[in-house]
Amino acid sequence: MASKGRRELPDESFYVDGNMEMISKTGSFVGHHICVPLEGVAVHINAFNFPVWGMLEKIAVNLLAGVPAIVKPATSTSYLTELVVKEIIESKILPEGSLQLICGSVGDLFKHLTCQDVVTFTGSAKTGRMLKSSPEIINNSIRFNMEADSLNCSILGPDATPDTEEFKLFIKEVTREMTSKAGQKCTAIRRTIVPENMTEAVIKAVSERLKGNVIGDPAVEGVRMGPLASKDQVKDVKANVRQLLNACEMVYGDLDKVEVVGADSEKGSFISSMLLYCKDPMKPSEPHSIEAFGPVNTVMPYRSTEEAIELAKMGKGSLVGSIVTGDNNFAKEVVLGSASMHGRMVIINQECAAESTGHGSPLAHLVHGGPGRAGGGEEMGGIRGVHHYMQRTALQGSPTTLTKILNTYLPGAAMKEDVIHPFRKYFEEIQVGDTLITHKRTVGEADIVNFAGISGDFFYAHMDETSLEGSIFEKRVAHGYFVISAAAGLFVDPKKGPVLANYGLDNLRFIQPVYIGDTIQVKLTCQRKTKKDKREGQLDQGVVEWYVQVVNQKQEIVALETVLTLVACKEQQA
Fold first, then answer.
1. Are residues 300 and 449 in the same domain?
2. pLDDT tens-digit profile of 506-533?
3. Is the same domain home to 301 and 438?
4. Same domain, 175 and 232
5. Quick check: is 147 catalytic?
6. Are strands 499-510 and 557-568 parallel, antiparallel or unpaired?
7. Cα 272 from chain centroid?
8. CB–CB of 67/40 below 8 Å?
9. Domain range for 184
10. DSSP string of 212-280?
């Protein structure tokens, strides 16, 4: 997240969101959006199964937003969180006070919260609903983000028969999600949805892999699955399995017996992996409403794509659904049919399997959360997650005023011309709004012919006037890329100076044609500046974004672009 912040966020204490909105006829009154940090604290109440990762993925975004955090881990595993927080504080990588830890009960914490604070919760839907309905949360309109355990599913495509690579991938994914962290993951697969004619093959294959899953002390060589987090968790899982058995049958595992290696099955919180089978999953509610939060999974057959989609949605909202198939048409139909009930969907086939992060791995780049039972929240998602800890405010005013506030040049704002060419200025000397209005250049037939010869672009509209009938052009038109190249020739200062290199261009648009005999001119304006991190062996530098308008002899805009240059800093010249 720090890396994304360096690349994608500005050198400001605020974030300019989206583009300027034209809300007046002449453009003298415009609109824009700005995001500023909330002036409160992010309170993260985390579940027992993610004492470290759950904390880090949340504080990463609130710290980028400029908001401090209070972390409240689950009591049963809080000692791990405490150890990590101590290491973080001792390392001094964060500003003092930006990370605080509360272990044990929340106490009266909520009574001290205001509308400037944010509460996030990860855990059971029941506890989440209780916290979300707290009077302080409701009365102060406090932002509350919930990520709850859900009945996630994985769907096997009808093309993925037992002789295919996709079938093997599916079996591997299902068993891994059952046994990883002893199935105590909010993203674990709870419902395995398979074609009816492959039910037996799937049950047999999963059972075979589970037989090789040695349970016991994780420190012992060969052990693949450890205990649950506590004895209470064992009781809870068993109680939920008994309810599931009202609608399902046990096809692998034992509710009361478990063989363990290097440990005492009675003293430890061990439990057997259990695979259930629901013959007619469209009827009973238990498999779609009861979650055994451990190494438990239910196989459900489907008879058609429509039925598979319906089963996927019967979980009433999940964090993740996966599809294992080599048939892209099936994948498309299932995604579009069931995405409304899933926060994330992963499609796995032999093309991507080697690098796939799998069903149960949320990623910082992508949103994590889901609708309905999954809590209705959303976290992470790259820079999207940062915005959850900021206030988005609409601004209205003149382009010049908003340019000053946002420190970003807006079209129509006042320009500042200088006798010094902007490319002769160092990074610190350039100001937003600094403008160069160039001399002019008339486009001739030779320009078009020569550019066609150099580029190899002999498109009819440039070269053949007899073919223009019925086209959008009145006569032979200059290449758009010639216009941009000629524009660069007008605004570039050729001498060696602070500009180190062209860094690229963005938002290129060709607004209207440039014909033979038209005269073009450029208005180059500093739109935004971003300081780059200094790397060993490199000059201290920054990126300057230039808003470029190419106009014709009537002062009509013919092309727009944003040109980026690397510009040296002056500090190192002393």
1. no
2. 999 999 999 999 999 999 999 998 887 7
3. no
4. yes
5. yes
6. antiparallel
7. 36
8. yes
9. 152-364
10. T--BB-TTSTT--B---S-HHHHHHHHHHHHHHTTT-EEEE--SS----BSS-TTTS-----EEEE-S-
pLDDT digit string (tens) for 325-341? 999 999 999 999 999 99
The residue from 57, 173, 177, 186 that is catalytic is: 186
What distance in Å separates the CA atoms of residue 105 and residue 91, rounded to the nearest whole number? 27
Please state, in angstroms and as integers, the Cα–Cα distance from residue 534 to each residue in 3, 261, 501, 537, 564, following that order.
14, 53, 16, 9, 18
Q: Which of 104, 128, 148 is the last residue of a domain?
A: 148
Is residue 186 part of the annotated active site? The answer reads yes
Tell me the H-state helices in 375-444: 383-387, 399-406
Regarding whether 324 and 450 lie in a shared domain, the answer is: no
DSSP letters spanning 300-360: EEESSHHHHHHHHHTTSSBS-EEEE-S-HHHHHHHHHHHGGGBS-EEEE-TTTTTT---TT
Give the whole-angstrom CA distance, residue 297 versus residue 156: 15
Query: Strand pairing partners for 188?
Result: none
User: Which of these is catalytic: 147, 173, 378, 545?
Assistant: 147
Q: Which residues of 136-159 are buried (b: 16+ CB within 10 A; e: fewer)?
A: bbeeeebbbbbbbbbbbbbbbbbb
Distance between CA atoms of residues 477 and 468, nearest Å: 10
CA angle, 222 then 225 then 228, to 5°: 150
CATH, residue 268: 3.40.309.10
Q: Which of 121-125, 132-136, 432-436 has the highest mean pLDDT?
A: 432-436
Tell me the pairing of strands 143-148 and 118-123: parallel
Query: Across the strands, what pairs with 107?
Result: none
d(CA 284, CA 274): 19
Q: Alpha-carbon distance 100 to 68, whole Å? A: 8
Q: What are phi and psi of 87, to 5 degrees?
A: -65, -40
CA–CA dist 327, 527 (Å, integer):
47
Contact 175, 206 (CB under 8 A): yes
Please state, in angstroms and rounded to a whole number, the distance separating the CA atoms of residues 342 and 208: 30
The structure's pTM equals: 0.80
Give how many domains the chain has, as a whole number. 3
The angle formed by the CA atoms of residues 61, 63 and 66, to the nearest 5 degrees, is 115
**DSSP-assigned letter for residue 9:** S
